[in-house]
Write a structure and sequence with these properties.
alpha+beta, Nitrilase/N-carbamoyl-D-aminoacid amidohydrolase, 7-stranded mixed β-sheet, 6-stranded mixed β-sheet, 17 strands, about 25% strand, C-N_Hydrolase_sf, C-N_Hydrolase, CN hydrolase domain-containing protein
Length: about 280
């Protein structure tokens, strides 16, 4: 364990200006955050904060080498753990000139990097957003494994955006010892009330802090994201975040307070699995 206090930084980005400007802004906010907070332990970025470079046979190489190396350099340069948002990753090496993948659909993948700039692992989004007149499964394949990763701050459970609506994810991560949850997201307008309620529910039902980092900004297709990235403690209380603008926030999570909350309310121990098995 790194200590009783975990200092977390969320980077809330408008990702409509292209990858170059998005990464430039991300770097600016990260540098500014460290200028005023030298002890940051964890950076969390939003879902799909970088976009596919269609029309190039070097798509996969570009994504894997460029974006992942960017995440690794941030982690190594600032000596900070990074939850790398997510991007579209193809498992094959070739995309045709019209941008069509010749082998299969990509997955929506989040890389987790430690302070040494090493890849600890990755998580591929399990629940695809086939709701609210959107059909993510037309463009993506789903993952099939949980995202739980050991860092020097503890065990971190990761899921992506729409996964939040499925409580089985947070429960399974909690049962595997997650000390906190990280949720990169591109949560659409106008559901900001649901975003807050669901994140709070994940915290309360598992007595576990949650860091949710959302995109901000409107899209050319008329859809858009409302931001409101936040940190919620183990009691379901918002303790930090940012509202409806691009930028960053820095907040501290007290692990000893999480332990206290779990002692006062031992929810996992009080479950009635004997009954659940009869009902499910």
């Amino acid at each position: 364990m790194h200590g009783e206090i975990i200092t977390v930084c969320g980077i809330q980005l408008d990702c409509n200006g292209g990858n170059e400007s998005t990464l430039k802004n991300a770097e600016k906010y990260i540098a500014e955050a460290f200028k005023y907070n030298s002890d940051i332990d964890l950076i969390v970025l939003p879902e799909q904060f970088v976009k596919p470079q269609c029309g190039s046979s070097k798509y996969n190489k570009y994504n894997e080498s460029f974006f992942v190396n960017w995440l690794k350099s941030v982690a190594k340069n600032y000596k900070v753990n990074v939850i790398g948002g997510s991007f579209a990753r193809f498992s094959c090496d070739y995309v045709s000139d019209n941008g069509k993948n010749e082998a299969e659909k990509p997955t929506n993948i989040c890389y987790v990097i430690n302070r040494n700039g090493e890849i600890v692992g990755n998580y591929e989004k399990i629940h695809l957003f086939d709701a609210f007149n959107v059909k993510e499964s037309d463009e993506f394949s789903s993952g099939d494994r949980l995202g739980i990763f050991s860092l020097d701050i503890g065990k971190v459970g990761v899921w992506i955006c729409y996964d939040t609506r499925f409580p089985e994810i947070s429960r399974a991560l909690s049962l595997r010892g997650a000390d906190l949850f990280c949720v990169p997201a591109a949560f659409y307008k106008p559901n900001s009330d649901q975003w807050e309620i669901i994140l709070k529910s994940s915290s309360i039902m598992n007595v576990t802090p949650v860091i949710g980092v959302n995109q901000i900004g409107d899209r050319p297709d008329g859809k858009g994201f409302f931001g409101r990235s936040m940190v919620i403690d183990a009691k379901g209380i918002i303790i930090g975040g940012i509202s409806d603008k691009e930028g960053y926030f820095v907040t501290q999570i007290d692990k000893s307070y999480t332990d206290t909350c779990r002692q006062v309310n031992p929810e996992l121990k009080n479950r009635r699995i004997d009954l659940y098995r009869k009902w499910l």
